[in-house]
Amino acid sequence: MTLHSDLNKTTLEAFSQRHIGPRDADLQAMLRDLGFDSMESFLDACVPTSLRTATPLRSGPGAAEHQALRELADIAALNLRWRSFIGMGYVNALTPPVIQRNILENPGWYTQYTPYQAEIAQGRLEALLNFQTVIADLTALPVANASLLDEATAAAEAMSLAFNAANGARRRFVIARDTFPQTRAVVQTRATPLGVLVDIQDRQDLTLDEDTFALLVQYPAADGCLFDLAPLAAQAHDAGALLIVATDLLALTLLKPPGECGADIAIGSSQRFGVPVGYGGPHAAFFATAEKHQRRIPGRLVGLTRDAGGGHALRLALQTREQHIRREKATSNI
Known about the structure:
Elements: H1 6-19, H2 24-34, H3 39-46, H4 65-76, H5 97-104, H6 122-139, E1 143-144, H7 151-165, E2 172-176, H8 181-191, E3 197-201, E4 212-219, H9 229-238, E5 242-247, E6 265-269, E7 285-289, E8 302-306, E9 312-316
Parallel strand pairs: 2-3, 2-4, 4-5, 5-6
Antiparallel strand pairs: 1-7, 6-7, 8-9
């Protein structure tokens, strides 16, 4: 773009001065207050020499946007597309162009046009509310959140919720052996600081005692096996424990949902809804539960309310566990 007047140039310079800082004079003032005469002496005092490089970064010259995009596309083309036979919850998916154009690329989802939430646009809140609604419908559980990392993390959060619901009186968490191995691994890691004993058992021969606070099963199982959740829910509840179901959203379009089978919590990955496999993730997880556990559900929940003028407004509706406990006791990664 060629500037045709000094006025335009002055306007652009004024914009950069307002939005790009701090200026040199500001830097010098801050350095003087801190007792340093230069940025180099400040860095020498703050950053160990073992973490610094003595040679300039080889970043190369700058590039225009179209040049940078072309270079990035060339680098991405070096990736080799292999077919994965591992499975374990990761399935390649296609996103229909009509969904991509009208939902994912719709600026209404991410353009901030009302100031109700300074930290998140109303459009994104609407998208998250729609996501929560879909999860609640497919799982048949009334409360769903909008922010967890992946299925294994969601399983660990479900364990924490169930443990807290038992008020720490029980210490045993049972996992069916045909649950995804990465889920079992993350749960075991997160159980250690809580003092929880993770007990892995065959699903066909489960033993739940008075110290068991929850049972986690995979539905469908890691080997694709389908089974009736209702007897497992009854067995868990008879033992005073909660039933947690790690499930597949696409499968739930055909299978009886966990909520209708008596499950207390349903978790899983939304990767099946078109998120690329991406060399293993991470992928957006989902977490749904009964209303009595809504104050313990991790992450964010988006809700619909009314503004002062009576119009509809979206907001982060519910303060969840992390806002009600001291930071040093928090175990959530969200």
